[in-house]
Write a structure and sequence with these properties.
Structural class: alpha/beta
Strand order of the largest sheet: 2-8-7-6-5-3-4
Number of strands: 13
CATH topology of the largest domain: Aspartate Aminotransferase, domain 2
Largest sheet: 7 strands, mixed
CATH architecture of the largest domain: 3-Layer(aba) Sandwich
CATH class of the largest domain: Alpha Beta
Bound molecules: pyridoxal-5'-phosphate
Amino acid sequence: MEGLRRRQLLVLRRAGLARWRLEGRQGREGRGVRRRPAAAGARPLTGTVQPGARRALAAGLPDFPWDRLEPAKATAARHPGGIVDLSIGTPVDPVPAAIRAALTAASDAPGYPLTAGTPELRAAIRAWVTRWCAPGGDGFGVLPTIGSKELVAWLPTLLGLGPGDTVVIPPVCYPTYEVGVQLSGATVVRADALTSLGPARVRLVWVNSPSNPTGRVLPPAHLRKVVDWARERGAVVASDECYLPLPWEAEPVSILSVCDGRFDNVLAVHSLSKRSNLAGYRAGFVAGDPALVDELLAVRKHAGMIVPAPVQAAMVAALGDEEHVGLQRDRYAARRAVLRAAFEGAGFTVEHSEAGLYLWLTRDEDSWDTVAWLAERGILTAPGAFYGPAGGRHVRAALTADDERVTEAAKRLAEA
Ligand SMILES: Cc1ncc(COP(=O)(O)O)c(C=O)c1O
């Protein structure tokens, strides 16, 4: 443990992070009030928080986006042929039998599981990351997570970020990046081009390729620039790669593959939800800078953020098999082809969408108008406005409806 701390400190010092943590602590101790700027979509904080008063976290968070979709959902549900729900990327196909068998076989689990993961799971994650993400080196750390959403939501906090720190997220992105920044009290900035950021004290940069919601794939040269930029400033790059196993017209790469075998300041976040239909199991992991991963482990051990033992066993089975991933990819490819042609036939433009689980669509009008137009036809999509102001003229259609519903959507679009 002592060796671990020394190694962590060395790396932190090298990356300029030790200073940051100290500053963060000092900044917070001196302040009884943690006011945060209201980010886009956040409810304004009402009234003045008295020094020493409880800071109600929920009050500063945006409304849960999908709650705002309820009226459109009700409209779509009234369609005589039933709703085709393309609004959420939740898998609908079965959990592969071998994964279910592994879960069942491990279900007699009376003791506490390891936060770091069983040796079998750690080996399975390492092997998978080496094969698919980091062929050039094995000096990365690994840690299982309870799905990846919780890590996304808590990473700024787990890294010790707070008021005065800046986190960069993509202009149009998965809403939980912003929520995570809000939970920590840091400031969020939406930017693609890091060069435009000026003197902000950037501590963390999120990238997401293939992107939710746009399906955009970042080329290796772009990822490398982000890594170089972050290392020069002692910032961390977190790359959310949960859609990496779903390439269509572009070949997404892991950020770990552009690091020349050196993983300092870099974390790759992965999920088995989409790859293996395990959204209901809550199975993910993070891999990258061993000192940062050790730091996350140290906090998560105290905080009880542990993947249940049967799920750990199921993850070993899932990561050891690529056949089911190929089958699932084929299902999505077929649905994507049908939906893409149908939306284009109905006058939509498909942008990006070169990989991942979504079609990013526009009729060049406000995204809520498009949601309403589709809901009248019994098709529910997510307005691009959920993902940032720059998404306000798009909607996102998920490929996660079964074949019958996808055919039904195509039929309705052909009649539109
Ligand atoms: C970009 C992105 N990251 C992370 C997640 C979280 O996935 P999970 O918590 O199921 O691993 C999602 C879920 O849709 C996502 O789209």
